[in-house]
Amino acid sequence: MPKPIAATAFSLLAAALLATGCSGEPGSAAPASSPAAPGSAGPRFGAPSVPAPLDPAPLEKSPCAAMTPDQVATLGAPAKNSEPKPADPTGPACSWSFATDDGPSSTTGAVFTADPTHGGISGLYGKQQSGGLSKFQPFTVSGYPGVIYDAATNSSPGSCGLAVGLRDDLTYTISVDLDALKQPFADSCELGKKVAGFVVQYLQKGGH
Predict the structure, then answer these.
(1) What pTM, to 2 d.p., does this model score?
(2) Torsion of CA 40, 126, 6, 82, to 10 degrees
(3) If pLDDT is split at 50, 70 and 90, which confidence band does 5 have?
(4) Which of 206, 169, 199 is nearest to 68 (CA)?
């Protein structure tokens, strides 16, 4: 029975971020009553800093503008449709689905603004230090720090969760959910990195 497109993987990565605060001991939740001001919190737990903060406003206004249909097609299969989710629990999001014959495949991305205390990339580094992640692989895209991560131990082979820092205290989270055979895609995490690259480029151009 096909699994809901992107729902399982995206909820897992969202839960991992929401469980981690940007103050206190690694893995502890920061008080909701005292969130850090945007851009005021520097990197923590050994996390790299974001070289130049990016304004997420264009994606908050139009979440699906992060990728054009032509860009989606370069990920491995033609674009089928895009679904904006401005009220997603994690923040303004978009789910892009692919036109494939082997099964439902999609990628979802969100500006993680629903909880300003989540800690950005530092939150993931803190979660790793407290033993809360089963997968943790730092990467960079266009000079911006990111992390491939997973809080579960039984994720499906075609899924991947990752985040890229837009500011030291804010990430764009990406979930890739491919069919079991991962056809015609090569690797779900590499696909996610390409999405992160498109997002960074889009925001570097001011949403153009």
Answers:
(1) 0.79
(2) 20
(3) very low
(4) 199
